[in-house]
Automatic annotation (TrEMBL), chains A, B:
<keyword id="KW-0238">DNA-binding</keyword>
<dbReference type="Pfam" id="PF01037">
    <property type="entry name" value="AsnC_trans_reg"/>
</dbReference>
<keyword id="KW-0805">Transcription regulation</keyword>
<keyword id="KW-0804">Transcription</keyword>
<dbReference type="GO" id="GO:0043565">
    <property type="term" value="F:sequence-specific DNA binding"/>
</dbReference>
<dbReference type="GO" id="GO:0006355">
    <property type="term" value="P:regulation of DNA-templated transcription"/>
</dbReference>
<dbReference type="GO" id="GO:0043200">
    <property type="term" value="P:response to amino acid"/>
</dbReference>
<dbReference type="InterPro" id="IPR011008">
    <property type="entry name" value="Dimeric_a/b-barrel"/>
</dbReference>
<dbReference type="InterPro" id="IPR036390">
    <property type="entry name" value="WH_DNA-bd_sf"/>
</dbReference>
<dbReference type="GO" id="GO:0005829">
    <property type="term" value="C:cytosol"/>
</dbReference>
<dbReference type="InterPro" id="IPR011991">
    <property type="entry name" value="ArsR-like_HTH"/>
</dbReference>
<dbReference type="InterPro" id="IPR019888">
    <property type="entry name" value="Tscrpt_reg_AsnC-like"/>
</dbReference>
<dbReference type="Pfam" id="PF13412">
    <property type="entry name" value="HTH_24"/>
</dbReference>
<protein>
    <submittedName>
        <fullName>DNA-binding transcriptional regulator, Lrp family</fullName>
    </submittedName>
</protein>
<dbReference type="InterPro" id="IPR019885">
    <property type="entry name" value="Tscrpt_reg_HTH_AsnC-type_CS"/>
</dbReference>
<dbReference type="InterPro" id="IPR000485">
    <property type="entry name" value="AsnC-type_HTH_dom"/>
</dbReference>
<feature type="domain" description="HTH asnC-type">
    <location>
        <begin position="7"/>
        <end position="68"/>
    </location>
</feature>
DNA sequence: CGAGGATTTGGCATATCATGCCCCAAACAC
DNA sequence: GTGTTTGGGGCATGATATGCCAAATCCTCG
């Protein structure tokens, strides 16, 4: 499904503009990429259709929402047979507190980003959500004390 | 500036709906949260104004864009005096390849998410962008082999 | 229990915007 | 040079956002 129709510089400009402001009007977007509204909207729809644009979202202050604690969790499995891996990954996808889960190189198999209300919630999360999955060899927890940078905008790779 | 006007359940429903689809129409949004369009839009504007909603963005396929390699980098500084920390953080913010930078608990001081075109680009990034900052004690690189989950939607904390 | 005020909601008119259609210009093949 | 393909521009129409005013709800205090 995700074709690779090779994006050109204008497509990437559209993407970066929308990464800065995803609710930007097509008229403003067209102006920013030096196109008239019609072809601009056509390109946008094409990017959505071929999968380059996967969706739109809103950036929310986690603390204001009521989830002030973000945790990065490194997880290693104690076995890597198909069944263990499949069970872990499908279970992880179903846990709402887990916003992201990456397969990693290095010492641990997975890196999770988890949001919770407080430390107690995190302990509950580990006990009630993670451990019951089974097959987990080690869990290494790091708390996020602060955010230095958080950008949605990809670098310009025109050069 | 980021007040804490205590969001209610409807505000959180608005947020979760927009996290699923950030370009959702106000009419559809109103229907989804059982409100008429007017008060729904007013709540939305209030959330934007008080900082609960920090902005809107688009989710882009990094590979389709031309940045197939994502790297998680753990960085420790060799000193923690004000000057070293300030220089590191302000420099990091200026590097376009660094999409995220968190201050962490645990063995390393920072966790960076970096996107590049290939391994060679990453080596250039470390040599030309990271090391010149100075004051860096250790760099621990982990490559992202795959994405198991990537959600923008916060858990429902009504209960 | 009821009245006042404050807050939130709903409905409506208008301006703005998205969308689909048709035409035009440039690049390309033969 | 001609036919073909690809991408851009303009316009009319339908959908949407926005601001204003009235009505309902909630809270508090008498």
């Amino acid at each position: 499904m995700p074709q690779t129709p090779q994006l050109d510089a204008t497509d990437r400009k559209i993407i970066r503009a929308l990464q800065r402001n995803g609710r930007m009007t097509n008229l403003d977007l067209a102006q920013e990429v030096n196109l008239s509204p019609s072809p601009c909207l056509r390109r946008l729809r094409a990017l959505e259709k071929n999968g380059a644009i996967k969706g739109y979202s809103v950036e929310v202050d986690a603390k204001a929402y009521g989830l002030p604690v973000t945790v990065m969790v490194r997880v290693s499995l104690d076995g890597h047979d198909e069944a263990t891996v499949q069970r872990f990954e499908s279970q992880i996808k179903a846990i709402p507190e887990v916003l992201e889960c990456f397969v990693m190189s290095g010492l641990s198999d997975y890196l999770l980003r988890v949001v919770v209300g407080d430390l107690e919630d995190y302990e509950r999360f580990v006990r009630a959500r993670l451990h019951p999955i089974g097959g987990i060899g080690s869990i290494d927890t790091s708390f996020v004390y602060g955010v230095v940078k958080r950008s949605q905008v990809y670098p310009d790779i025109s050069g």
